[in-house]
Design goal:
By secondary structure, this protein is of the alpha+beta class. The chain contains eleven helices and four strands. It has helices spanning about 20-25, 35-40, 50-60, 85-95, 115-125, 135-140, 140-145, 145-150, 155-170, 175-200, 200-215; strands at about 45-50, 65-70, 75-85, 105-110.
Length: about 220
């Protein structure tokens, strides 16, 4: 009798309750080919891992929300997370960790993303594996994703991000923003005092003229 070939390690010792989630992460290519052919990328389930960089190139500026998994070149899970902009998060991971670690990805998109629901699905995906991915243990992936994401933003994306962040700070009456304004006003008073003391008004006049011109252009 020929001995059976052992299943790959990622398919071994899977609890029955998690078998469905496990099958979702490791299903075959042909099971979802029809859905991929017709679904827009924002709604497309990526069950079988695909090339991470190629998916990001296809997504481009499309904002896809969902739970995603990152695999290395051997198809071993490296990180499972969630994001309201998966392409941006994946590009940040790629910048941080490189293509050897961030070779493949899978995705469950959320048309109406809610943090609690995405967190729950992420935790279920992690629980469905024999052990948590290393990226979910060392804390380096999730803790720096915001900083890394700003590095891979385009100029337009970064401008929109900074504008939105400033708007939120103003809406929340951010104390640090008030301090920055106060500091700026204090510096202007120091410049004025220095001009009076040194009898040198040219710098102050130039600055006020520039401010007036800037306001006139807005």
């Amino acid at each position: 009798m020929t001995p059976e070939t052992p299943a790959p390690i990622e398919h071994q010792n899977i609890p029955q309750a998690h078998q469905g989630l496990h099958d979702f992460l490791y299903s075959a290519d042909d099971e979802h080919s029809a859905a991929i052919a017709i679904a827009p990328i924002a709604e497309r389930i990526v069950a079988d891992p695909v090339n991470l960089k190629a998916w990001c190139d296809e997504a481009q500026a499309v904002k896809v929300a969902g739970v995603y998994a990152v695999f290395d070149g051997d198809r071993q899970p490296q990180f499972i997370g969630y994001s309201r902009n998966v392409a941006l998060s994946l590009r940040s991971h790629l910048t941080q960790k490189g293509e050897a670690i961030c070779a493949l990805m899978s995705l469950q998109p959320f048309k109406f993303p809610k943090r609690d629901a995405m967190e729950q699905l992420r935790d279920e995906w992690i629980a469905a594996l024999p052990s948590p991915p290393p990226g979910n243990l060392d804390g380096t992936w999730a803790s720096t994703v915001q900083a890394a994401a700003t590095q891979v933003m385009s100029a337009a994306e970064r401008e929109a991000y900074e504008a939105k962040k400033l708007k939120l700070r103003r809406a929340m009456a951010d104390g640090t923003l008030s301090k920055e304004i106060i500091k700026s006003e204090a510096e202007q008073r120091q410049d004025l005092a220095a001009a009076v003391e040194d009898d040198n008004w040219s710098a102050v006049i130039r600055e006020q003229t520039q401010e007036t011109q800037n306001h006139g252009q807005t």
